[in-house]
Amino acid sequence: MGHILVAPDKFKGSATAAEAARHLAAGVRDAGRHAVELPVADGGEGTLDAAVAAGFRPVPATVSGPTGAPVRTGVAIRHGTAVVELAAASGLAHLTDGPAPLRATSRGTGELVAAALDAGATTVVLGVGGSACTDGGAGMLSALGARLLDADGAALPDGGAALAHLHRVDLSGLDRRLAATRFVLASDVDNPLLGPTGAAAVYGPQKGADAGAVAVLEAALARWAALLGADAAAPGAGAAGGVGFAALAVLGARPRPGIDVVLDLVGFREQLTGAELVITGEGALDEQTLRGKAPVGVAAAARSAGVAVAVVCGRSAITPGRAAAAGLGPVHVLGDVEPDLARCLADPGPPLRALGRRIAAA
Questions:
Q1: pLDDT value at residue 341
Q2: How far, in Å, CA of 123 to CA of 142, rounded?
Q3: What is the three-class DSSP state of 60?
Q4: Which of 229, 139, 248, 120 is nearest to 186 (CA)?
Q5: Per-residue confidence at 188, pLDDT binned at 50, 70, 90?
Q6: What is the DSSP letter of 201?
Q7: Residue 281 and residue 311 in contact, taking contact as beta carbons nearer than 8 Å
Q8: Does the predicted model carry a pTM greater than 0.85?
Q9: Transmembrane stretches, by residue range (predicted)?
C-alpha cells in the first residue's frame, strides 16, 4: 500500500499547518498506515513555517513592524533561494495597538529582503498576504535604499498617507545586489493598484480604513505610481496594500499563484510519488477557498498525478457537490467527531487525529 501524504494549511487561530499535519498523521498511523507530513501554505501567513518544515534553513532577523516596533522573525533559505513572508514583518498580527491604515508600513518586509541577500540569496520568493499596510511597497523600497522626498528634499515618514506629499523618488541608492536577484511574487491577488478594485478600495477597509482614509490612500497611491512612472494597472499590483506594485515595477518580480510556489518549494510533487491518498485542509472551507487557496491547489496537483484527495476543515460553507466540482473530494469537518465547536477551537488535536484515523481506515 502507498503512503498517505498529509498536506494541510493552517487552521487559523487553532493550529498551525505543521500542528494540523502532525495530528492528522498521528491518526493515519493509528490506522496502521504510513503517513508523510508536508504542511503547506498559500503564499501568505504560514509560508515561512512551511519552508522551514520542508528543510529550509531559518535565518533569524529583527525588523521593523508595521508601525515601527521591532519584530523578531526571519527568512528561510536553501540552495540560494530565500523565502520572505510579508506577514511575518508587516502583517496585521503585529498591530498590537489597533489598526493604523494611514501610517502602517512595509519597511520590515524590505529589511527581510536585505537579510535574505545578506544570507546569500540569489532568488527571493516574496510571499504576500495578510498585510497591515497600504503604502504601495514604499516602505519596502525605502529599506532597500530608495529615497522618497518631499518638496523640500526631506525624507517622507513611513505610511501610505505620507505619499500624498511625495515630490521625488530617488532609486539611485537601491541595494546593488537587487539587480542580480530573481524575485518571485507569490500571490493569489490580481487586483490593480488603483481604482474600485485596487489596494485601497478593496483591502483598505480590512485594515481599518474608513471611507475618508480610503480616499486619502487612493490619492496617495496615485501620486506614488505617477512619480515612480510604473504601471499601476498591472495584475497583482494591488497585492498586500501595493507591495505587489513595488515588487513588479522596481524589483522585476515574476508573479505566480502562491500555492503553486509553495508546492514547488516544499517538493510536493516529488512526495506524490507512491502516494495512495492526499489529506489536505484548512480551518474554514468557503468560496474564498475555491479561488486558489491551499486545499484547491493541493487537490489539483494530486489529481494531475492520479492521486485521490480528502479534505479536513473546521467548518464548511460549501456543499458536497460544490466541493466535488472543485476537485476537493470528500470533506470531513471536525464537528463530525467533536460537536462542541468551542472545544474544537481550543484543542483541535483530538478531532484532527480522529479524522485522520477515520480517513485512513476507510
A1: 87
A2: 20
A3: strand
A4: 248
A5: confident
A6: I
A7: yes
A8: yes
A9: none
CB-based contact 259:189 (threshold 8 Å): no
CA atoms of 155 and 168, how far apart (whole Å): 10
Q: What is the pLDDT of residue 329?
A: 87
DSSP states along 132-150: ---STTHHHHHHTT-EEE-
* C-alpha cell belonging to residue 169: 523618488
How far is residue 198's CA from residue 71's CA, in Å, rounded to a whole number?
Answer: 28
DSSP state for residue 330 in the 8-state scheme: S
Q: The domain 47-259 is classified under which CATH number: 3.40.50.1110, 3.90.78.10, 3.10.450.50, 3.90.1510.10?
A: 3.90.1510.10
Q: Domain spanning 3-40+267-361: which superfamily?
A: Glycerate kinase; domain 1 (3.40.50.10350)
Domain ranges for the chain: 3-40+267-361, 47-259
Element containing residue 293 per DSSP (H, E): none
Inform me whether the pLDDT recorded for 290 exceeds 90.
no
pLDDT in tens, 74-119: 999 999 999 999 999 999 999 989 999 999 999 999 999 999 999 9
Q: Confirm if 69 and 62 have CB atoms less than 8 A apart.
A: no
Residue 236 has pLDDT above 90, yes or no: yes
**Tens-place pLDDT, residues 302-339:** 999 999 999 999 999 999 899 988 889 899 999 999 99
